[in-house]
Amino acid sequence: MSRTPTRAAPHTLPRGLALARTRPAALVALAVVLLILAWALFPGLFTGQDPITGVPADKLLPPDGAHWFGTDHLGRDLFARTVHGTSLSVRAALLAIGVALVAGSGVGLVAGFLGGPVDDALMRATDVLLAIPGLLLSLAVVTALGFGTVKVAIAVGVASVATFARVMRSQVLRVRHATYVEAARLAGSGRTAVLLRHVLPNAAGPVLALAAVELGAVILAVSALSFLGYGATPPTPEWGSLVAEGRDYLAVAWWYSTLPGLVIALFVLAVGVLGRALTREGRTDR
Amino acid sequence: MTLTTRASVPGTTAPAQAETPAPDDPAPSGSLLRVRGLRIAYGDHEVVHGVDLDVRPGEVVALVGESGSGKSTTAHALIGLLPDGGRVTSGEVTLGAGPRTVPLTGLLPDAWRRVRGVRVGLVPQDPGTALDPVVRVGEQVAEALVVHGTPRRAARERAIEILDEVGLDRPRERARQYPHQLSGGMRQRVLVGIAMACEPELVIADEPTSALDVTVQRRVLDLLADLTGRAGTAVLLITHDLAIAADRADRVVVLKDGVVVEEGPAARVLGAPEHPYTRELVAAVPGRNTVPSAAFTAPGQASATNRAGSGTSVSAPGATSGLGAKLVTNATSVTSATSVTGATWATSATSATSATSVTSPTTGEGSAPEPVLLAAHALVKEFRLGRRERLRAVDDVSFAVPRGSAFALVGESGSGKSTTARLVLGLERPDAGVVELDGAPVGGDRATRRRTQLVHQDPYSSLDPRFTVAGVVEEPLRAHRVGNRAERRDRVAQLLEQVHLSPDLARRRPAELSGGQRQRVAIARALALDPELLVLDEPTSALDVSVQARVLDLLARLRAEHGLTYLFISHDLAVVRQVADHVGVMSNGRLVETGPVGRVFDHPAHPYTAELIAAIPGARTAAHPDRKDLT
Amino acid sequence: MLAYVLRRLAGAAAVLWAAFTVSYLILYLLPSDPVAIMLDQGAGGERVDPARVAELRERYGFDQGPVQQYLTLLGRTLTGDLGTSISSGAPVAGLIADAFPETAKLAGLALVLALVAGVGIATLASWTRAAWLRDLLLSLPPLGVAVPGFWVGLVLLHLFSFTWFVFPAVGNEGFASLVLPAVTLAVGLAAVVAQVLSQGLREAWRAPYVETAFAKGSSRARVLGAHVARNGSLPTVTVLGVLVGNLLGGTVVVETVFSRQGFGRLVENAVTTQDIPVVQGLVVVAAAVFVVTSLLVDLAHPLLDPRVLSGGRGRAGSGGGAR
Questions:
Q1: CA distance B434 to chain A (A)
Q2: Which residues of chain C does A268 touch, with a Cβ-Cβ cutoff of 8 Å?
Q3: How confident is the model at residue B617 (pLDDT cuts 50, 70, 90)?
Q4: How confident is residue B253, by pLDDT bands cut at 50, 70 and 90?
Q5: Top-confidence residue, C78 or B205
Q6: Most CB within 10 Å of its CB: which of A191, B279, C188, C313?
Q7: Which chains touch C (3 or more CB pairs under 8 A)?
Q8: C154, C161, C285: which to substitute to probe chain A, counting the most A Cβ within 10 Å?
Q9: pLDDT tens digit string along B319-335?
Q10: Helix (H) / strand (E) containing B248
Q11: In what order do the strands lie in the sheet with B86-95?
Q12: Which of B66, B462, B512 sits opposite A183 (nearest CB)?
C-alpha cells in the first residue's frame, strides 16, 4: 500500500449534503440540536403555557394531548417548563465551554509556543487539575464562589480547562514542528506571522472539535450541579432542577423526572453524534 | 532449515534434493502459483483489472509498478489478506501442482489457515510495525510453528535456531527481547525468519526493504535469496525499484493501473523493454543518463545519451545492455552532462580521477576557477541523548561548493547529512566550526536566509494544508515585502510557469495535487526570492520513479537557467550520480570521503564508500549476469 | 525497574502536594471571604458577633498572611490532621474515615460491573462479524455517556423500587441496597470503558502485526488473544486512574439520589453548608485516590507494555530488564 495522492473533493457547498447522505444519524442529530436551540431562543413559539404559574386543580396530571409532558405538583405544564428551562441550561453550558475554551486554549497555546520551563510548569499544573475528579473540582469552586447558574457554569468550565489546554498544546506542538512551519520560517516569515497564519489556523480545528464533543459532558455536569441544588433558584425552570423537583414524586408521577431527563439525554446524545461527525470530517480533511 | 513442522502438515515438503534450484531453466509448465483474470475492487472501484501471473517452483518473480499500480493489492489478495472493503470480484488463483493443487479464491478461513505460513509465507513491508511490540521476538517466531501443530516447547527451541539462521547474534538472548530492542534490519530478518519458518513453497515479499538503508537492504535481500534458494522456495517480490528487480528476479511482471503491461525474463524486460510504459520506467531510473533537453546538452553528450538510452531491440546478450549496464556505463558521462553551466569546473572534475581529492575547502577553491559560494569549516554538532550521553551528529565536517555546481552529501539514515544541511541553513547552530557564504560567515539573519533556500524531503508535509498553491508560493515574497499585490501575483504566475505547473493550479490546495505537483510547488516557493544556493533534502525520495525523473530534470534545467548552486542531500546514490558534480560521503557524523562524482563512484578510496556503492541495486546484470545474491 | 518505581512514587507525592495547593488556592484565596461564608452557615443568618469573627479568623489562620496560613495548613495536613468541620465541629479526617467504607463498597461494585459490561461490549463488537450486532453494540456507549447519572438513578428507582418492588429505594442496609446505586454509577463508566477499549481494539486489528500473524496461519481467535487484546487494551489501562477518580465524583450524585451515607453524601452536605475545611479534605482525599490508582496502573503498565521501561534508551539494556 504505497501512498496515493489524496484528491480530496473541492471544499464547496455539497459538503453538508454529502454528510447527510453518508451519515444519516448525523442529520437526525443536527435536527434535534437545531430544534432544542430554537426552544432556547424562542420558547414562546413552541408552547403557549405559562412555565411559572400553574393551575392547582391540574396538578400531577399524566402526559396527554393538552400536557405533552404532564403537569407538576403545582399544576404547571412540564413541557412548557422544559422548553423555557432550555435557555438557561444551554446558556450555562455555552458559558462553561467558553471559559474552558478560552482559558484552556490560552494556556495550551502559551505552553506549546514558548516551550521550555514555561511549558513544564503549565503542564504540571494541568496534571494536577486532571488529578482531581472533575465534579469535585467544580464543587470546590462552587463552594468558594457561592450558588447560582452562572457560578455553576464557571465552575464546570474550570474543570474542563485542563483538557482543552492539553489538546491545544499538543496541536500547537504538532503544527509548530510541521515541515511547513519550518518552510515558512525559511521563507522569512516572523514568529508572529507564523503563529497567526500557520499555527493557529491549523491547531484550531481539533480544539473546536473537542469543544463540540465536550459540550455534551458540560451539559451533563451543569445539570448534575443543578440537580444537587446549586444552580437555578425555584421557581425558575432549568433542566437539572426540573429532574430534582420530580424526585419527590417518583412513586406517583413517573413523568415528572423522566421526561425532562429524557430531553437532556437526547440533547447530549445529539451533540455527541454531531461532535464526532465533525471530528471525523476534520480528520479526513487533511 | 530443518523440518520441524513437516510431520504435522504432510506433504508440504518442497523436494528436499532441490538444494540448488536452477532458475535459469524453469520448468516450462507446472506453475506453482497460477493467477488467471484476477480482478479486485474496493467497494465499486475496481483497482486490479484481470491480472495473469505465473510463478514456477523455486523461481523469483518480481512484480513491479509505481504506487497505485495495484501490485500490493494483488499480493495481498494472493494470501487472502485484503484490507477492509477489498474483495476479489473474479478470477482464479491456484497454488501447487498436480494432486496438491489448491484454489486460493473463495477459501474459507479454516482452509486459509492450512495455506498461510505452511505453503505461502509473507514478508511484510514495514519492519517497524509488522512485529507485535508487546510480545517477545522468539515467541512471535514460535507462533508461526505453534499454529501449525508444533508443541510449544519445541517451537521455542526451533525459534532460537531460526533466529540464528537469519543471522541474529546471540539468538537465545535476542529471542527474549522485544521488537523495539532490535534495529530495523534485525526486525526484517526476524520477519524473513517467520515467513520461512515452515519452509513454504512460495514467499510473497511486499517491498521488503523499502524502509531500510541501502547496505541493510542488500544484506536482507541476500538473506532472503539464501534461505529461499536453500529451501527451494519460490519468491514473488513486490517492488517499485527496478534495480532491485534487475538484481534479484528471474522474471519480471510490470503492472500499471491494475493491468499487466509486460512480462518476461528480467534481462529481456529491463534490458530491451517492449511496452512504452516499461521503457519509460527504465528510462526514469536515476543514474541513467537523462538530460533535461537537447538545448542544454553539449552535442557530444547528446549522441552518447541516444546510444545508451534508446536501447531499442538490442536482444542478443540482453544482460550487457541491461539496466545495470547502463547504470555503470553512463556514470562517467553523467558528471559532464549535468554540469553544463560550470563548464570549466566540470572538465576539471571529470579529469579529477587523477586530481587530489578535495578535502579542504581552500584547495577546492584553488583548483577551480569558479569561486566558492558555500564553505563549511570543521562543523561540529552534538545532541543530548540522556543525562550524560551525547551524540555527535556532525563531527568535524568541512567542504566547499563552487558557485554553479552541485554538491551531494550522501549517507545512510543517522549519518548526519540532514543535520549538516540544517547547519548550512542556519536552522541549527553549530557547536563548533563556521558556515560561510561567499566568504562571509552565515548567521540566522534574513539577508543570508534570502540567499539560501530549502526544498524539503516530503512534499506531503511541507505545504500548509490550508494555503492555496498561490499562497504558498507568495509567502516568501510577502515575508520580505517584495512588490505590491499585483506584482506578487505576476511573480507567482511566472514561478509556476518555471516549474511547469499550470496556472489553473494556483487556486488549488495541496491536498488536491499529486506528489510531483506538490514538490514543484515547493521548488517554486524556494525560487521565489531568487536564491543563490538551494539545499535539496532528499527532494525526490517520496516520489514514484517516473515522477522523480521529471523532477530531477526540472532541477537540472533550473540550475542551468538560473546559475543556481545545489547542496543535494540523498541516500540514493543512483540519484546523486545523476545530479551531482561533487559528492561527500558521510558516516556516523564524519565526512569520510569527498571528490568528483565519477572518481568517488568508480574508485572509492574509503572502505565505507566502497560498501555503499556495492550495495546499490542494479549491479547484477552488468557485472555478474548470473548471480542472484551477492554473498 | 527500581528507578522507574521511585520516579513514579516521587511524581505521585508531587501531584498530591499540588492538589492540596490548588484546593487551597480555590477555597481560601478566591475573592469570597471564607469567614463570612462560615459564619453565614454557622449562625444561620443572624447578626454576627465580632468577637466570634476574630476568634474564627485566629482559629483558621486568617489573621496570618496567606503564605503563613498556607504553610500552617500544609503542615497540619502532613500530620494527617485535616481540620475540623465548621457545621458539626467534628474532625474532618474522622468524618471521611467513617464515610469511606460504604462508598468503597459502592464504587468497587460499580467498577466491577462497569468493567464486565464495558469489556464485554467492546470485545463482542470487535469479535463479531455480523454487522448488525456490531452496530448495535457500538451504539450503546454513546447512549451510556449521554444519559445523566441522576436520571438513570431515578428511572431505576421508579421501575425497581416503586413499580416492581425488587430493591429498596433508600439506605445502606445489605447487598440489595447496593445494587441500584452501583448500576447507576456503572452506566457512564461502562460506556467510557467500552468506547476507549473498542477504539483500541479497532486500531489494533488494523495494525500491520495482525497481518503478520494472519500470514503465519493464525486463527482469528488466536490473533485476538495473542496480539489484539493486549495491544488494544493499553489505552484503557492508562485511563483507569482517571475513571476511578470520576467514579468517586459520581458518588456525589448517586448517594444523593439513593439517600445513602458515604463520601459523596459528605461532599454534598459540605458544599451545601459551604463547610470549607471539609470540602478541602474531601478534594485532597479524592486526589489521593486518583494518585494511588494511577500509581498502581503505572506499576502494572510495564507488565503489559515492555516499551514503557526502556523509555527511549535504545537496545542497550537487553536481557531481564522487564521482570
A1: 19
A2: 145-148
A3: confident
A4: very high
A5: B205
A6: C188
A7: A, B
A8: C154
A9: 333 454 444 333 333 33
A10: helix B242-248
A11: B45-55, B33-42, B86-95, B102-103
A12: B462
Ramachandran region, residue C262 (left: φ > 0; alpha: ψ -120 to 50; beta: rest): left
Element containing residue B138 per DSSP (H, E):
helix B137-146
Q: What angle do CA B544, B275, B304 make, to 5 degrees?
A: 75
From C281, C143, B463, B102, select the one nearest A268 (Cα to Cα). Answer: C143
| CA separation for the pair A5, B151 (Å, rounded) | 47
pLDDT grade, residue B353 (50/70/90)?
Answer: very low
> What would the pLDDT profile of B417-463 be if each residue is shown by its tens digit?
888 998 888 888 889 999 988 888 876 666 777 888 999 888 878 89
**Pick from C148, C279, C282: which is nearest to A224 by CB?**
C148
Range B263-271 average pLDDT: 90
Q: Which residues of A touch B207 (CB under 8 A)?
A: 2
Q: Using CB atoms, which chains have 3+ pairs under 8 A with A?
A: B, C
The x, y and z cell numbers of residue B139, run together, are 515467541
Size of interface B-C (CB pairs under 8 A): 102
Chain B: give the shortest CA distance to residue C322, in Å: 9
Q: Hey, which residues 38-77 in chain C have their CB within 8 Å of chain B?
A: none
**Residue pairs spanning A and C at CB distance below 8 A:** 154
Rounded Cα distance between B15 and B35, Å, is 23
Instruction: Provide the pairing of β-strand B251-256 with B390-402.
Output: unpaired
Candidates C18, C146, C271; nearest CB to A142? C271
Which chain B residues have a beta carbon less than 8 Å from that of A208?
Answer: none
Q: How near does any CA of chain B get to the CA of C10, in Å? A: 19
- Residue B601 pLDDT > 80: yes
Mean pLDDT of A228-253: 86
Task: Give the whole-angstrom CA distance, residue B219 versus residue B222.
Answer: 5
pLDDT at A4: 40
pLDDT at B11 over 70: no
What is the spatial distance between Cα B490 and Cα B479, in angstroms, rounded to a whole number? 17
Sheet-wide strand order for B590-596: B452-455, B533-537, B565-570, B406-410, B582-587, B590-596
CA distances (Å), B414 to each of B208, B571, B594, C11, in order? 21, 11, 19, 34
H or E stretch at C276? helix C276-304
B525 touches chain A (CB under 8 A): yes
Chain centre to alpha carbon of residue B461:
19
User: Nearest CB to A131: which of C149, C274, C291?
Assistant: C291
pLDDT (0 to 100) of residue A177 = 82
Q: Are B401 and B512 in contact (CB under 8 A)?
A: no
Angle at B600 between CA B596 and CA B602, to 5 degrees: 120
**Of residues B61, B426, B360, B98, the one with CA closest to residue B228:** B61
Please state, in angstroms and rounded to a whole number, the distance separating the CA atoms of residues A127 and A129: 6
Tell me which of B168, B178, B183, B188 to substitute to probe the interface with C (most C C-beta atoms closer than 10 Å). B178
Distance separating alpha carbons of residues C321 and B136, to the nearest angstrom: 13
In angstroms, rounded to a whole number, what is the distance separating the alpha carbons of residues B102 and B97?
Answer: 9
- With CB atoms and an 8 Å threshold, state whether C279 touches A140: yes
Question: How much of chain C exceeds pLDDT 90, in percent?
Answer: 34
| Cα A255 from Cα A149, distance rounded (Å) | 25
pTM (predicted TM-score): 0.79
* Contact residues, chain A, for C280 at CB < 8 Å: 140
CA-based angle B367:B372:B374, to the nearest 5? 140
Which residues neighbour A188 within 8 Å (Cβ) at sequence distance 6 or greater? B446, B449, B450, B476, B479, B480, B529
Binary contact (C155, A261; C-beta < 8 A): yes
Q: Is A117 or B290 the better-scoring residue by pLDDT? A: A117
